[in-house]
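A student in our group prepared the protein record below, which I am reviewing. This is what I was given:
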Amino acid sequence: MLSPSPQYAGGRSTRTCFAEITPAVLRCQNGSRVMGNLQVVSLTGGLLKLPKPLHCGSRVKLMFLTRKGSVLGAAEMLSPLSWSLQPFKFVALHDDDEERLQAAIKSSLDQNRRSHAQVERFRAW
């Protein structure tokens, strides 16, 4: 079932950067496709590295693969931060895509915590 992206009152959704390079494909309303890489992601949106920015407000279908499976959602492109970095917000995610994304974010955060703890444990004081 397609549901609107979750909204979080009073705070930001938890964001993460996956350890591995995460290719993303955007399908525009005119049928064209744009390849990019996911830089940051949350349940409400993220940041993409693109060859060139898309028009602010453009609606796209966004697909990327995580360790928990593929995620496909409808997104709106926001104002570019630079020539190659552009944020987006999810406007709709299927329930199963949202669950996979949530699991991937949790897994990434857990991995980051374990890595940080290991560095702290072996740090020479």
